[in-house]
């Protein structure tokens, strides 16, 4: 899963959202919510020694759930491409990536994120 060229964490988040949308999951929890931190924490744990490829770094366990500052910053950057529904508190992709090179550079990673998200109660609306 070694990337051939750099992919930013916000682009990875957006690429995952686009993939999930194509798989019939068009809405997501608010960016930087607990569910996003839990998703990427679970992903980091499952990747083991390949986790540094995500560029996230360590999670802190202070509080109710694992949190990560780099992930929070990436969420803020990715938010400019999303629309929020204030009635549901969920978001959708409003502006697709100009070039989605994540699948080419990290084959299987988006699918792994999607699989982890389907296991996380409440991440997708119908879960």
Structure, explained:
This protein is mostly helical. The protein has one domain. Helices cover 42% and strands 8% of the residues. The chain has a 3-stranded antiparallel sheet. Helix 1 (9-22) crosses helix 3. The longest helix has 14 residues, at 9-22. The chain is globular, with a radius of gyration of 14 Å. It starts with 8 loop residues before the first helix and ends in an 8-residue tail after the last helix.
Summed up, the helix count is 5
Low-confidence stretches: 1-5
Strand arrangement within the widest β-sheet reads 1-3-2
- Report the order of strands and helices: HEHHEEHH
Q: Round the Cα radius of gyration to an integer and report it.
A: 14 Å
Backbone structural class: mainly alpha
Number of strands: 3
How many separate domains make up the residues? 1
**Secondary structure: helix percent:** 40-55%
Overall geometric form: globular
Largest sheet, strands/sense/barrel: 3 strands, antiparallel
Look at the structure and give the mean pLDDT.
85
Report strand %.
5-15%
Quote the distance from N terminus to C terminus.
Answer: 28 Å
Write the layout of secondary structure elements.
Layout: H1 9-22, E1 28-29, H2 34-47, H3 69-78, E2 82-85, E3 90-93, H4 102-105, H5 109-119
Antiparallel strand pairs: 1-3, 2-3
Helix pairs in contact: 1-3, 1-5, 2-5
Please give a quick description of this structure:
The protein is mainly alpha-helical and 127 residues long. The protein contains 5 helices and 3 strands, in the order αβααββαα.
Summary tags:
globular; 5 helices; three-stranded antiparallel beta sheet; mainly alpha; 42% helix; 127 residues; 8% strand
